[in-house]
Amino acid sequence: MPRITPNLWFDTESLEAAEFYISVFPSSRITNVSYYGEAGPGSAGTVLTVNFVLDGQEYTAINGGPQFTFSEAISLLINCADQDEVDYYWAKLSEDGEEGQCGWLKDRFGLSWQVIPAGMGEILGDPDQGRAERAIKAMLGMNKLDLAAMRAAADQS
User: Using CA atoms, how far apart are residues 9 and 61, in angstroms rounded to an integer?
Assistant: First the structure.
């Protein structure tokens, strides 16, 4: 079965972005950097692509120019084990970026992330519809997700 590698399009910041991402995620590294040659279309000697691994997942980043930018139509979802992980990834990735609603943020490069605590699916999918709705209502008022606060809201009658 083929491996699927997300390819992220940057204007000129692919190496800077990859270096930032590997500083945030454990067990991560840059595996290759390629450069434009005389044939272009970028300036000879400037970074063309960066291959990197974030905690076991391979990525490629390309400096393709300003024609395309990121949107929320694609995001990278981080399944966090606990609130400490949510807090860590939220702080690191939102620094110089933009906080969004319901666990979404854009990093300083414009890439969208969802920072999700373990157990969120259970509380949002609670068979008791009232509990689930109270949890959803609480979530809609949050930027960074707080599972304990969502559970507390779900338990209120």
Answer: 6
First vs last C-alpha separation in the chain: 49
Same domain? For 6 and 82 the reply is no
Over residues 18-27, the pLDDT tens digits come to: 999 999 999 9
Same domain, 4 and 35: yes
Dihedral over Cα of 28, 118, 114, 58: its sign: positive
Does 77 lie in the same domain as 147?
Answer: yes
The kind and range of the H/E element at 16 are helix 14-24
Range of the domain at 5: 1-68
Q: How far apart are CA 142 and CA 8, in angstroms?
A: 28
Q: How many domains does the chain have?
A: 2
Tens digits of residue pLDDT in 96-142:
999 999 999 999 999 999 999 999 999 999 999 999 999 999 999 99
Domain end (from 38, 68, 98): 68
The DSSP output letter for 3 is: P
Read off the pTM.
Answer: 0.92
